Amino acid sequence: MKLIRTEDAKGCILCHDITQIIKDEKKGPVFRKGHVVTEEDIPVLLSVGKEHLYVWEKEEGMLHEDEGAEILRKICQGGSAEEAAFDGVEKTFRYMKATEAKEGKIELISDVDGLFKVNSDALRAVNRFGQMMIATRHGNTEVKAGDKLAGTRIIPLVIEEKKMQDVEKAAMELTGGEPVLKILPFQKKKAAVVTTGSEVYKGRIRDTFTPVLFEKLSKYDVEIIGHKVCDDDHEMVTMTIQHFLEQGADIVLCTGGMSVDPDDRTPLAIKNTGADIVTYGAPVLPGAMFMLAYTKEKKAILGLPGCVMYAKRTIFDIVLPRILADDDIAKEELADLGEGGLCLGCPVCTYPNCGFGK
C-alpha cells in the first residue's frame, strides 16, 4: 500500500476503514476497506479529517478482493461477467442471482423454485485453498425464489492472481467444467395414486392416506390425473399402475402393503411392472420400508410406507423435490441418507431447516 493525498485519491482503493464520529448522532465507518474512491467521496473524506489516505498499490499478479470474489462467483454460478446479465445490482445466470461484489463478498440468491444442488467435492477443494471461502445451504434441498443459496468471500484485501487461477482450475476439474452450484427448476408433473389394502377396498375403514398425499402434492405444480383403490391382489395393483402410466402419469404413488407381512404385495406389484427397482428399503426413519422404481421413460413409481400417512416428515419429503426436478436418484445416494436420516420428531417441526435428510 502507499500513502497519497486525498485530493489525488479518485479511483484508488482504500486499505482501511474510514471512521466518522458525530456527537450524539453517529460513530462508525463512513467508507469501508476496499472502497473505490470517487470524486464525490473526496469532500466527505476531507470533512472527517483525512488529508492523506493509505490506498492499495496495484501490483503485477495480485487481484483486489472484489476481483477475486468475481472468480468465486463464476466458480459457483458459472458464466463470465459478460454472460451473466448485470442490471447494476445483481447478475442473473442459470436460475441464480449474484449480488454485486462488495468488500470481497458476493451472495447468490435463487431466482426460481427448484432443487438446489452442490458439488460437495469441489466445494471442499475451494475452501481448502485458504484465503477464500464459499458457504452454502445443504444440497439436494428445495429452495424458493428469493432464498439465499450461498455466500462467498475473499479474506485478505488482495490475493494472488495465480492462486485464484489454480482454485478455478481445481474446481472445474472436479465438476467437469460445470459450476459448483446448480438449481434444477421444478417441472409440471402428472401424478396418480394407487391405494392398496382389502380393508380400504372393502370399505371397512376410511382411506386417510390419500388426502395426505393430495395435500403434499398441492404445494407444487402437480396435476392429479387419477386415484384408484385396489384389493391386496398384486396383479390388480400392477395393472392399475400400468394403466396410469399409459394415461400419462409421470409419478405413480402406491400406498399400503409395503411391509413384510404375507398379504403385503405392493413391492411385488411394482416389480412386475417391469420398472427398474432402485431400492426397497431406505436408511431413513420414518420411511424405512420405502420403494423407488423408474420406468425406461424415467417415470417414477413410489411405494410409500404407512408412516407417510401419520408422520409429519418422512422419506417422501426428502425424495419428492428431487423427482419433481427430474433429478434421478441413485441407490448410493439413498444409502448416504443414513447419516441425518433420523427424524427427531421435534415438538415444533422446522423441516427443512433442520438436519433431517442432510
UniProtKB/TrEMBL annotation:
Residues 192-325 form the MoaB/Mog domain. This is Molybdopterin molybdenumtransferase. It comes from Sellimonas caecigallum. The keyword Chloroplast does not apply. Keywords: Magnesium, Metal-binding, Molybdenum, Molybdenum cofactor biosynthesis, Transferase. The keyword NADP does not apply. It catalyses: adenylyl-molybdopterin + molybdate = Mo-molybdopterin + AMP + H(+). Its cofactor is Mg(2+). Belongs to the MoeA family. Catalyzes the insertion of molybdate into adenylated molybdopterin with the concomitant release of AMP. Pathway: Cofactor biosynthesis; molybdopterin biosynthesis. CDD domains: MoeA_like. Its EC number is 2.10.1.1.
